[in-house]
Amino acid sequence: MWRTIITTAFRSSRQLRGVWSEWKKSGGGSGSGLGEFSYPRGVAIDGDGNLYVADSKNHRIQKLDAVSGVWSEWKKSGGGTGGDLGGV
């Protein structure tokens, strides 16, 4: 089964095509909790199928584990903006 993910940023778009064995919805609402986003700006999938989302207004990167379906996050310690994301 073919699925297409389309991401947009600054009037450009990119498509990621592939074969998906299962389609799940986990999180995706507006907010600052795990699985919630405020102006997501980028998405990536690693070799293990984990999904990474750059959550720009929350100043963090979130990861959706492909096996467990659990969200985790990396963000700058101290809650400030700019700089490194805790050494990531």
Automatic annotation (TrEMBL):
Q: Which UniProt keywords apply?
A: Repeat
One Pfam annotation reads: NHL
Can the keyword Repeat be found in this entry's annotation?
yes
* UniProt protein name: 6-bladed beta-propeller
SUPFAM superfamilies referenced in this protein's UniProt entry, alphabetically: Calcium-dependent phosphotriesterase
* NHL repeat start-end pairs: 24-67
